[in-house]
Amino acid sequence: MEPKNVKEAMTDPAWIESMQEELLQFKRMDVWVLVPIPNNISPLTLKWIFKNKHDEEQTVIRNKSRLVVRGYRQEEGLDFEESFAPVARMEAIRIFLAYAAHKSFTVFQMDVKTAFLHGSLKEDVYVCQPEGFIDADHP
Questions:
Q1: What is the pLDDT of residues 47-76, one digit of tens each?
Q2: Where in the numbering of this chain does the Reverse transcriptase Ty1/copia-type domain appear (predicted)?
Q3: How far is residue 53's CA from residue 36's CA, in Å, rounded to a whole number?
Q4: CA 127, CA 105: separation in Å to the nearest integer?
Q5: pTM to 2 decimals?
Q6: How far is CA 35 from CA 32, 77, 94, 118, 127, in A?
Q7: Which of 66, 69, 71, 124 has CB atoms 3.0–4.6 Å from 49's, for a disulfide?
Q8: What is the per-residue pLDDT for 85?
Q9: Residue 29 region, left (φ>0) first, then alpha (ψ -120 to 50), else beta?
Q10: CB 50 within 8 A of CB 1
């Protein structure tokens, strides 16, 4: 069962492990550094998203916790200059697959678990620490 909030997730060791795994990816990629919040900055808040991953028989095979920023609270020009999400248009995918089929190419699918962690930002972004994992030395 998917928890609705952090309080529910923290009652299940499997979900705690999933959350720790997500935070470990952030640490491995040096995504953030704990710093005091400057006076003129309003930090963005983070939210945990919990999803069960299922196999073909709809049996839960693993718990997936994602830590996301509530970016919808940002204002263009104030908090950021531009927003961009590279997504292929469906027409481009269809053309690619048709061409691959025509040429008898083998097509492979892959997923990069931490793709968004590989990007770089032009400006500093301040976020609050994730609920359930507050560092007491850096509140």
A1: 999 999 888 898 888 899 998 888 766 666
A2: 30-135
A3: 37
A4: 45
A5: 0.65
A6: 9, 24, 46, 21, 10
A7: 66
A8: 64
A9: alpha
A10: no
Q: What tokens were used for 21?
A: 């795994």
Contact 91, 98 (CB under 8 A): no
At 80, is the secondary structure helix, strand, or coil? strand
Angle at 95 between CA 90 and CA 100, to 5 degrees: 125
Q: Is 70 exceeded by the pLDDT of residue 80?
A: no
Name the region of 75 (left: φ>0; alpha: ψ -120 to 50; beta: rest). Answer: beta
- The values of phi and psi at residue 37, to 5°, are -80, 125
Return the pLDDT at 13: 93
Residues 81-102: pLDDT tens digits? 566 566 788 999 999 999 999 9
In the block, residue with structure tokens 């976020």: 127
Cα angle: 42, vertex 79, 81; to 5 degrees: 170
- Residue 76 has φ and ψ, to the nearest 5°, of -65, 135
